Amino acid sequence: MTNSRKSVKPVEKKIVFDRLINDRDFELVYKTGRVVISEDKKIKAKYLFENKDIINTVKIGLSVISKKGNSVWRNRIKRILRESVRINREHLRNIIELKNADLLIIFSPYSINQTNSKKIFLKEIRPAVLDILKRIGK
């Protein structure tokens, strides 16, 4: 005789990682978001939690103003920030599960610029991003 009952798995909320693209989302974060600065004062982040549907999303935006450096340097910073966030994706997943809301984050350099940091590497930025994510998760 076979057991016809199927085991019921708990409904797991899906978390989607996406880019912050809309001007409306950027304006919303800039106007109503909270600011967090890393301990070493290299990176700044503005973030906002939004209560939404079953699917929780993390939208990440990167903003580097032209006064910080030329286009090559700005694009390098954005690539490094994007990679650092990708590495810390599990930490973001834990924050979303804890808060049960959408998270909109805009990362930007705070004290670093091209004149004081000609070459910038992932090993310099990654601890700052992790520090910001820990502060957001509190």
What does this molecule look like?
- By secondary structure, the protein is an alpha/beta fold.
- 39% of the residues lie in helices and 23% in strands.
- The chain has a five-stranded mixed β-sheet with strand order 1-4-5-3-2, sandwiched between helices.
- Strand 2 and strand 3 (43-50) form a beta hairpin.
- The longest helix is centred in the middle third of the chain and has 17 residues, at 71-87.
How would you describe the shape?
globular
What strand order characterises the main sheet? 1-4-5-3-2
Order of helices and strands: EHEEEHHEH
Terminus-to-terminus distance: 52 Å
Assign the structural class, choosing from mainly alpha, mainly beta, alpha/beta, alpha+beta, or little secondary structure.
Answer: alpha/beta
In the predicted model, the low-confidence regions spanning at least 5 consecutive residues are none
Percent in strands: 15-25%
Portion of residues within helices: 25-40%
Average of per-residue pLDDT values: 88
Q: How many individual helices? A: 4
The main β sheet shows up as:
5 strands, mixed
Topology:
Blueprint: E1 15-19, H1 23-32, E2 34-37, E3 43-50, E4 56-62, H2 71-87, H3 89-99, E5 102-109, H4 122-137
Helix pairs in contact: 2-4, 3-4
